[in-house]
Amino acid sequence: MKPTLRIFLLLPLLALLINACHRNDVLVPEPVKDIAGEWRIVKAVRNGVDITTLADFTRFRIRFTTDLQYTIQNPLPFVVSKNGSYALDDPKYPFRINFRQTGANAPVSTTFTYPNVNGKRNMNFTFSPGCTANTYDYTLERLNP
Fold it and tell me: Which residues of 120-139 are buried (b: 16+ CB within 10 A; e: fewer)?
């Protein structure tokens, strides 16, 4: 077979391979994470030990509003102890939340995750309130999505 004829036969095959590898990307914009609502603690771990059943965490509530305010009911050891405002480091992919308690000079910042567990949105906080020897890991679940 002549080399020119081979090239003409291979060109359509090459064109098919190139088109087969072309992806039809569908760009779906990432939604802004909405933490507005009332949250409760469903799991509490201190220094690696589950303490959920050792204290009454059922009454603690934190409410985040769409106007970037938060209120706390029945405070426990938490990132903050007073009401105030909050800000996420990135509205679409947040990894840090900044709390500014009313009357405080500086915000308190902590990392958090925002997983969906069994169809329910959770927030996980890891923090040390004052004493760095104690580390708390709280899992919060939204009450009113």
Answer: ebbbebebeeeeeeeebbbb
